[in-house]
Amino acid sequence: MGYKIAIDGPAGAGKSTIAKVIAKKLGFIYVDTGAMYRAMALFIMNEGIDPKDAEAINNKCKEADITIRYENGEQIVYLNGENVNSLIRTQQVSNMASLTSPNIEVRKKLVELQQKLAADADVVMDGRDIGTCVLPDAEVKVFLTAGSRVRAERRYKELMAKGEDCDIDIIEKEIIERDNQDMTREISPLKAAEDATFVDSSYMTIEEVAETIIGMVSYKKEG
Ligand code: DC
To answer: From edge to edge, which strands make up the β-sheet containing 66-71?
Structure first.
């Protein structure tokens, strides 16, 4: 059994950035579960399935072969043999992932894959249901939040840096909509595990948040 750090929270709270820093500092594997839900959303989209058609999604998702490999320390997501890392970060895939991820068969399939990846390794895993559902026995559980405007500003900067034209008010509105969808869905909604520690990253630097979480690991280990 490895050591598990679970980081959950809403979109744009800084989960993946922080998780990557922690993984590097501690020599752990970083597992980005959102990327798996995004790859599945891309598959459903490419198949031309209506995102509101739960039955079609639950059937079709079984045909998606999603695998993860680590190349030069980076997580690469393969969808039916194709590296899809550069295709899954668009707003369209973000919005689609929020609609396809609540489906039961999608979750069953991806949770199983996530638990396999974590089985014997030291991992930092981020997502929405890691502390509650995927790794309920994780040694450290964090619920990372930030205000919706701060999160929108972060996303805006990311998209602008990639040359994507965008409007910050629309991004904030979409973030709030996605939060609502993620928090109110029936299966594995976004919520903090009872034993999670809340960290608000609104006015903290990446380093400060990473150090806070690494501090929790040291504290637990020294016990
Ligand atoms: O973290 P992200 O923005 O890459 O996640 C994409 C979508 O996948 C988001 O709508 C929530 C969903 N997701 C989920 O339901 N469960 C997870 N463990 C991770 C992500």
So the answer is: 66-71, 74-79, 82-83
Determine the distance separating the centroid of ligand 1 and the alpha carbon of 141, expressed in angstroms: 17
pTM: 0.92
203 Cα: distance to centroid of ligand 1 (angstroms):
23
Instruction: Give pLDDT tens digits for 102-115.
Output: 999 999 999 999 99
Instruction: Tell me, in angstroms, the distance from the centre of ligand 1 to residue 11's CA.
Output: 8
What Cα–Cα distance (Å) separates residue 121 from each residue in 32, 58, 114, 140? 14, 30, 11, 15
Read off the pLDDT of residues 69-87 as tens digits, 9 standing for 90 and up: 999 888 999 999 999 999 9
Question: Which of 92, 109, 128 has most ligand 1 atoms within 8 Å of CB, for mutation?
Answer: 128
